[in-house]
Automatic annotation (TrEMBL):
Protein name: Integral membrane protein
Amino-acid biosynthesis as UniProt keyword: no
Organism in which the protein naturally occurs: Streptomyces gilvosporeus
Presence of the UniProt keyword Transmembrane in the record: yes
Pfam families the UniProt entry points to: DUF6113
């Protein structure tokens, strides 16, 4: 009996269904919530809070890509995270204080979150296209 052909993975051109749209909306909202929580936690318990906030973002981005099997599964919560962080960054309270301090932790949170989003989107893109794991040319 010949082996069964592999099932096609949900790639970049996965069909748009109402369930998939609903999942993308939930991922967008989760990206905003993780950004708000990470903003508060990273400043409270340095360096543990920073690592916790970045781990939560990585878990969301990778989980979104795994759940949907598409590149958009990592990009949509990343976009929600990015928009929320930059909106929180631009908010000035009446006292003149920012929600983000001017310390190293805030900059590491911004740069680390962007790096995590790019890494998770790249891994999701390689998996969706079907790039094999292992050495190249060996």
């Amino acid at each position: 009996m010949p082996p069964a052909p592999p099932r096609p993975a949900a790639g970049p051109s996965a069909p748009v269904t109402p369930g998939r749209i609903g999942l993308y909306v939930l991922l967008l909202v989760a990206g905003v919530l993780v950004a708000v929580a990470g903003t508060l936690v990273q400043a409270a318990w340095f360096p543990g809070g920073l690592l916790l906030a970045l781990a939560a973002a990585a878990g969301l981005f990778h989980g979104g890509a795994t759940a949907t099997g598409t590149l958009a599964g990592a990009m949509i919560p990343g976009a929600g995270w990015l928009v929320a962080v930059f909106l929180l960054l631009s908010q000035v309270r009446p006292e003149g204080d920012f929600l983000f301090g001017a310390g190293t932790s805030s900059y590491l949170f911004l740069a680390g979150g962007l790096a995590v989003a790019v890494i998770c989107a790249t891994v999701a893109q390689r998996r969706a296209v079907g790039v094999p794991h292992g050495r190249v040319g060996g």
